[in-house]
Every structure is written in C-alpha cells, then in structure tokens.
Amino acid sequence: MRPRLPIASLALLPALLALGACDAAPAPPVPPKQELSQAALQAVAADPGIPREKLARAIDALFTQPDLGETRAVIVMHDGRIVAERYERPYGEETRFVGWSMSKTITGVLIGMLVADGKLRLDQPPPIPKWQRPGDPRGAITLRLLLQMRSGLRHSETSDPAYANDTVRMLFLQGRDDMARYAEAQPLEYDPGSTFEYSTSTSVILDDIAARVLTDDSHDPETRRKAVDDFLKARLFTPLGMYSMVPEFDSSGTLIGGSLIHGTARDWARFGEFLLDGGAVKGVQLVPKGWIAFMESPSPRSPDYGAQIWLNRPSGTDRNELFASRGPADLVAAIGHLGQYVLVSPRRRLVVVRLGKTDDDVRRPLIDALGDLVALYPSG
C-alpha cells in the first residue's frame, strides 16, 4: 500500500509543485564589464601575445584601483618588444624614475663585471683595510656573503621612528657624506654567513669596493666618482641603450647603488630584458651568463633572495615580497621602496615594469595585481 501524505503536506502540495516547475529562482543578471577607456586600449599593442583586452584590463587596474596606490608608469615587454606602455600624467617617456632598491641589482651586475675582469674574487675578503687588521672578526666576510646579504654586520633597515634605523642614518644623517665609512664601521651582530639581513648599507659597501678596485684605492672623491660612472656607462648603460641612467654619488665619491640610481621606465625595462637574456644584449655577453645564474640562485639563508635580487620563491618566513604561491618559479625581481618593480620571467619571455608610489605597509594588493598580470602569459 502506498503511504498517505499527512493532511498538512497535502495542503502545501500546490506550492511545492509550483516550486518544482521553476526549479530555482532565476540567477541575478551578470553585471556588464566596465567599459575600457581609450587610454587603456591605446596603451596595448595590437598583438601583445595574449588577448589584447585582458592585458589592457590588467594594466588599467594598476592605474585605477584605489587600493593599489599611485601607479605612474607600466611597461610590458614580451619576446623582446614593448607590447604595452602607459603613464599617468605628468609622467612620460622622458621621466627619470628613482629606482630605490632596484638599484641594488645594478650594483650586483657591477660587481659581477669586476669579478669577471679578475679584479675581485667571490670567496675572498674584499679590500676593506679596516676589516683586515689582525683580530678583526669582520675579516671573515667575503664578497659572496655581502652580495647575499649575510655579512653578519649589525644593521636595522627599517624602524619606528624612521630616523632610528641605519638606512636613514646612513643616507640622510650621520653617514650621508661618507656612507661606506658609516656602513663599514658597524660591528658584527651575527657570525658571517649565518643570517640573512636585508641591508641597503651592504650594497653601499659593495659600491665602495668597486670604487677601490677601479681607482687603486684612491681617496679622491672625484676620481672615485668618475671611475665608477665611466665604468657603468661603458660596460652596461651604453651597450644596453640605457642613456637616461643617472647614478648618484655621496661626497666621498661612493655610488649610492643601494637606492639612488635614476632612469626612464623604458631603460628599467631594458635592464630587465638584459637579465632575461642572461646578461647579454644582441648576442654579446656583457657579464658572464654564470654570474646572472649566481645572482638568481637562492642563497643558503634566504630562499627568496639571490645576490642583490629577489626570487619568486617561498621565504620560509612571514616575508612575502612576491607571489610565490602562484608562480612562476623562474621569476626574479628588482624591487624598490614604495612599489618599484622590474619583474622578469625567462620562460614567459616577459618583463614587467611598474613605477609609482605605494606605501610599503599596503603593498599586498599591488603585488597581487602584478601577479594577475604575469599570470596572463603562459609559460613557454
């Protein structure tokens, strides 16, 4: 015998049948995509290697989303050509942008050229006389340890208040006239090689070392400045066509290569393409390919850092400078204060430059947006 429905259920049957007839309430209409501005579309080449509108939208987000800070310039290079370029007024093609800590990667290449020339050795102590005095434990610091930010020297990169940290003291206060002297006078805080500590002071020490070997340890500020400036122009900037680059020097003639090298967005993109091509331009190696491979290899104390360049890999700490969980694993980046980026992915044949002003404590949305842009390009 078929079971009978309770009286209450019978009373509800018409309503239940009506619901069954329509299955579910209709889905709300999908809002139309926001119309792209002419500026957004005109910034992208006709054939950027991926759907043009997708790339235009990803770039437009960098300029229009309020939580990403102020984007002033974006360049995307794919397969060796610029496929997108956009600026926010009053900035443009001729504007020189300060690289901030992107400058460190240029310092890394500078040191590599001097190693290739036989003027420096990677696993020997650098020519800093004070460190070579008998009994000074800093004599154990090698060039490799400096490049990988594990010298062990005492340093505070950031602090609250800002004037209490070594970066500000060196750049703007006690150390501003002779930055290398300030940086090299710091005592050891850790055993050399044992600990990663990101340090703008360390890059200035590397720049001082470059001046020493290029001038036979001259102490004349103009001699030091000219030697390093001429070397960078002859060996890097001119061969790459980076004619806009302006490096700053302190009063002692030391390159401020941890933070104060300026250049146009296109020239920063050219530098990214140079890294993508393993240190070559038009088939000519400006620095040994093995040196770029060394720079882009994880250091023993920081899987997300190489030698004066960041790597898109998990840090093993709460540090999260890029988008390692999303990949690509081959991506490396020169990263500067307030959201300056040169992102390089050799497998994707991709270089992305973003220049602007985004406070460091709210950079996560910007990093995610850059990850979205990179993800548009498939791995080659």
Distance between the termini: 68 Å
What proportion strand? 5-15%
CATH architecture: 3-Layer(aba) Sandwich
What's the overall average pLDDT, rounded? 91
What oligomeric state do these chains adopt?
A: single chain
How are the SSEs ordered, and which strands pair?
Layout (H helix, E strand, L loop, with lengths): L6 H16 L15 H5 L9 H13 L5 E9 L2 E7 L9 E2 L4 H14 L26 H5 L18 H7 L6 H6 L15 H15 L6 H20 L5 E2 L13 E3 L1 H12 L3 E2 L2 E2 L3 H7 L14 E2 L20 E5 L3 E6 L4 E8 L6 H12 L5
Antiparallel strand pairs: 1-2, 1-11, 3-5, 4-5, 6-7, 8-9, 9-10, 10-11
Helix pairs in contact: 3-12, 4-8, 8-9
What this model shows, in words?
This protein has one domain (97-375): Beta-lactamase (3-Layer(aba) Sandwich), CATH 3.40.710.10. 35% of the residues lie in helices and 13% in strands. The chain is built from 12 helices and 11 strands. The chain has helices spanning 7-22, 38-42, 52-64, 103-116, 143-147, 166-172, 179-184, 200-214, 221-240, 265-276, 289-295, 364-375, and strands at 70-78, 81-87, 97-98, 246-247, 261-263, 280-281, 284-285, 310-311, 332-336, 340-345, 350-357. The strands form 3 sheets. The chain has a 6-stranded antiparallel β-sheet with strand order 2-1-11-10-9-8, sandwiched between helices. Strand 10 (340-345) and strand 11 (350-357) form a beta hairpin. Helix 3 (52-64) packs antiparallel against helix 12 (364-375), helix 4 runs parallel beside helix 8 and helix 8 (200-214) packs across helix 9 (221-240). The longest helix has 20 residues, at 221-240. It starts with 6 loop residues before the first helix and ends in a 5-residue tail after the last helix.
